[in-house]
Structures are given as structure tokens and as C-alpha cells.
Amino acid sequence: QITLKESGPTLVKPTQTLTLTCTFAGFSLSTNGVGVGWIRQPPGLALEWLALIYWDDDKRYSPSLESRLTITKDTSKNQVVLTMTNMDPEDTATYSCAHAPDYYGAYFDYWGQGILVTVSS
Amino acid sequence: SSELTQDPAVSVALGQTVRITCQGDSLRNYYASWYQQKPGQAPILVIYAKNNRPSGIPDRFSGSRSGNTASLTITGAQAADEADYYCTSRDSSGNHPVFGGGTKLTVL
After folding, report:
1. From B96, B101, B102, residue closest to A49, measured CB to CB
2. How many CA atoms lie within 13 A of B94 on its CB side?
3. pLDDT band at B2 (very low <50, low <70, confident <90, very high)
4. What confidence tens digit (pLDDT) does each residue in A60-78 have?
5. Do A46 and B42 touch (CB under 8 A)?
6. CA A37/CA B73 separation, integer angstroms
7. DSSP per residue, chain B
8. Are A108 and A97 contacting, i.e. CB atoms less than 8 angstroms apart?
9. A61 chain-B contacts, CB cut-off 8 A
10. C-alpha distance from A108 to closest chain B C-alpha (Å)
């Protein structure tokens, strides 16, 4: 059974750096073709894809946020970490990590419950 | 703005068939996948890679594509299908995923 869970701060100040950890179980990020992605959703708004890391350490970023994002993995700990610099109130959103089963697909079949991050002074 | 365009809202009478569409140039080359999201819940994958349903998804959900438009069809909509629906595919460069803006489905 695949599960994912996000952890990190729920409140950050403007200009600070956000660090979120996705801890997963039920699959290995060393398996060919597998990836873990991050997606966010501001309150009442649409889903927005942020970043994705694959089993071979191939990393992809949203072009509009690439300069602010870093995604890394620790295969031994079954964790993926996302950092986002220079946080702004407009970055207030629920941040979710998800399992990508297919390198050639563009979908996520298992999602974490998400963590609501509020950016406020 | 998203590279994938969806109608903001669609309604359907209980038991009838509804089609939710997603338009984008990348859909000429890549298949769409679809998520259902209910308030306060994580998205659920309902269709992936052209027209595949994950385990547990009812067969009233189906996917199709024509030109630059992908469609999610619900045949015999149920009250439980009332939710937001998001399409996803690759961007026009093919390098990464992109989501549509979502469609709010109301079952009357």
C-alpha cells in the first residue's frame, strides 16, 4: 500500500525559505520509472504543479517557479524534500506530494493529505 | 494562465451523461489524465493515459481525445460525482506536467 505524508511548518514569514518533507511508504524511489512530485493549491483555487524528481535523480521544475525551488531525495529514508525560497503571502496554499508511477506519463496516482502553509508576518 | 483550458462549471441532471473538456495544444501529442477532488480532500485519479481507470474507479468514468481536446465522460452521473475535476498532461515542450484550471461539476 502506497502512502505519502507531508511535514513541515504551517506558518512562515514573508522572505523566509520553506522546507517541506514528503515521507512515503509502499514503493522505492530507486525503482525504474518512478517519481515523486509536489503540487500546491491555494485556497479556493486550482492545482499547480511545482516540481518532480525521478528515480534516476532527474529533476523537473515549474518554469514560473524554477528559480525558487529545489527538490531532492533521500532514497534510504524514503523521503523527498522541497525547498522554496523568498516566500510571499501569495504562496499560501496546501502543499501536497504525490507518487508518479510512469516516467512517460504526467499523472500522480497516490497523494498525501497535504499541508496548509500560510505565509504571513 | 494554464496551458490546459477547462470550463469553470458544468451541470448535469442525475442519471444523465456529462462531458467535461480540456483544451490545449499539447494534447495533440500527449494523453490527458483526470482527477476528481471533493472539498477538503486530496485529488483522486479517475482516468490516466488515454482511457485507463485505476482500481476502484467506476466504469461510468471514461476518457477520450480528439485533436487538441481531451474529454472526461461520466455516463449516468451520480450525486457522489459532484466535485471539481482537473485534467493534466504534459506541457507543450513535453518536459513536465501541467494542470488545467478545473471544472466544478454540479449534479442536479
Report:
1. B96
2. 6
3. low
4. 999 999 999 999 999 999 9
5. no
6. 27
7. --SBEE-SEEEE-TTS-EEEEEE-GGGGTS--EEEEE-TTS--EEEEBTTTB--TT--TTEEEEEETTEEEEEESS--GGG-EEEEEEEE-TTSSSEEEB--EEEEE-
8. no
9. 96
10. 7
A52, A96, A109 member nearest B97 (Cβ): A52
Residues of A in contact with B98 (CB under 8 A): 49, 106
Of the pLDDT bands very low, low, confident and very high (cuts 50, 70, 90), residue B9 is very high
Distance CA B91, CA B30 (A): 9
Chain-chain contact of B101 with A46 (C-beta, under 8 angstroms)? yes
Q: What is the pLDDT at residue A116?
A: 98
Q: How far is B6 from chain A (nearest CA, A)?
A: 11
Sign of CA pseudo-dihedral A3, A9, A14, A18: negative
Closest chain A residue to B89 measured between Cα atoms?
A: A106
Per-residue pLDDT tens over the stretch A6-38: 999 999 999 999 999 999 999 999 999 999 999
Reading the block at residue A38, the C-alpha cell is 509536489
The 10s digit of each residue's pLDDT in A80-111 is 999 999 999 999 999 999 999 988 888 999 99
Main-chain dihedrals φ then ψ at residue B28, nearest 5 degrees: -70, -25
Q: What is the number of other CB atoms lying within 10 angstroms of the CB of residue A58?
A: 10
**Model pLDDT, residue B94:** 86
The alpha-carbon gap from B78 to the nearest alpha carbon of chain A, in Å, equals 23
